[in-house]
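Per your request, structure below.
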């Protein structure tokens, strides 16, 4: 099967500070991959590099075509949706207005209302709060809104940065269950950066471990979960 996403020798820097040192990874269509690593390892920068949000060198291919020189908006148009850390909610707009912004690059405007209802099917609490100002939603509801806004793009690939951050365990379990359903039902591929390694490995098909901007371990999620170093460093046993 041809890879949906292929990354080779990816370097990234913020000004003179180099963060990524030759990252390589690949994903097949319809799969979930997680990036594990300590704070500062380069996980968030990897997602930003894939979106064209940081200066890079190296090669990034999506559906076989090079995207490493494209502008962020053009990458979004290809079907790559980024759910950033901090959620990126437009706090002064309503829930529904935030969701409609997620579809702003789409050309099939006639299907957007139907997709609103599709998203509300996954997140019925957002339907109850569709006219509510987004900044007044709870943390869990704002994270659900961020994921839903990405789904409004009808993406082929979702890049999720710390989706569980700051959320209560029950909300995290609910959110990850919905992500699994979206992946299985709609075949949306996902690349997930997550500090909760146990939840991430339960969700994912494949995993990469990043240390100081380099991939140090990769394999199926099941194999990575059994690795003694991963168990000690990220799973606590």
């Amino acid at each position: 099967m041809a890879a949906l996403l292929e990354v080779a020798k990816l370097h990234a820097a913020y000004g003179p500070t180099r963060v990524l040192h030759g990252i390589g990874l690949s994903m097949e269509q319809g799969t979930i991959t997680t990036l594990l690593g300590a704070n500062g390892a380069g996980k968030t920068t990897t997602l930003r590099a894939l979106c064209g949000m940081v200066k890079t060198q190296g090669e990034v291919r999506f559906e076989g075509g090079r995207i490493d020189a494209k502008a962020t908006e053009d990458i979004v148009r290809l079907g790559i949706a980024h759910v950033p850390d901090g959620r990126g909610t437009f706090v002064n707009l309503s829930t529904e207005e935030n969701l409609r912004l997620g579809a702003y690059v789409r050309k099939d405007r006639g299907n957007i209302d139907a997709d609103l209802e599709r998203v509300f099917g996954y997140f019925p609490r957002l339907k109850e709060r569709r006219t509510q100002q987004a900044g007044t939603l709870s943390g869990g509801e704002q994270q659900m809104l961020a994921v839903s806004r990405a789904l409004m793009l009808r993406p082929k690939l979702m890049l999720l940065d710390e989706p569980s951050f700051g959320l209560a365990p029950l909300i995290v379990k609910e959110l990850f269950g919905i992500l699994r359903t979206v992946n299985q039902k709609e075949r949306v591929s996902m690349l997930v950066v997550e500090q909760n390694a146990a939840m991430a490995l339960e969700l994912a098909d494949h995993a990469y471990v990043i240390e100081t901007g380099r991939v140090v371990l990769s394999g199926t999620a099941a194999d990575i979960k059994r690795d003694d170093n991963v168990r000690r460093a990220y799973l606590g046993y």
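The longest strand covers residues 3-14.

Regards,
D.
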